[in-house]
Amino acid sequence: MPEAPYDDRDGVIWMDGKLVPWREANVHILTHALHYASSVFEGERAYGGKIFKSREHSERLHHSARLIDFAIPWTVDEIEAAKQEVLDTSGLQDAYVRAVAWRGAGPDMGVASARNPVCLAIAAWEWGAYYGEAKMKGAKLDISRWKRPSPETIPSHAKAAGLYMICTMSKHAAEARGYSDAMMLDYRGYVAEATGANIFFVKDGEVHTPLPDCFLDGITRQTVVGMLKERQIRVHERHIMPEELESFEQCWLTGTAAEVTPVGEIGPYSFEVGSLTRTIAEGYEKLVRA
Questions:
Q1: Residue 53 is among the residues annotated as catalytic for this protein
Q2: Does the pTM of the predicted model rise above 0.90?
């Protein structure tokens, strides 16, 4: 049976201060964000009815909005309460939570939109493993032809909708070639990240991960770096050249949706789903449910 489309489901979505029926959570066609990508969002997961690192996500939503030049008219505390209201009303325990803020329809309909209202919505739904069976077997990644841009060209540390355009294009191209996802390089040619997840490598018992100086330093990434250091495992946050991939033994991805997902292949390079990868994946699963 095909999965129900996201605009035709039962439930409620919090919009601008009130819960509305899921199918009625709509915006006008001249909403500024639809035309000019003036939107930021968060992806979060609830485990046992509690959102992991919820407040950090709400704070980052505010930070992202400031980076693309608007202010969210709800405080972090109000966003926290709204997210909990959505979970409680929906009766969901294990769920994906999406908070999104955007410039709505108003008196401006050009590039500038300072007079338009800023809107906020929060939805939650059940969502399993982001990479399906790859969560156990190891994802297969293509290497994208698109690169993460320079911080001089975009607010690269905002979780902003427009920054994901090349991610969508990269993932579509990868899936068409039989891959789960794509690994992206940055504008200098260094390894950056996957289309919606950060990346880690293992060599000789030590971990190497790209320095997030031109892409999002994910909350899950930060959590996993902390887990590794607690286990006295040396972590090198540095620039990584793509030709180094041949020397790495293990690889995994991190993200709220991806959680900790092992990688078996990146283009011509192969990796084992080794003990450290499994240890971190299992440790993360315990941590989010603690």
A1: no
A2: yes
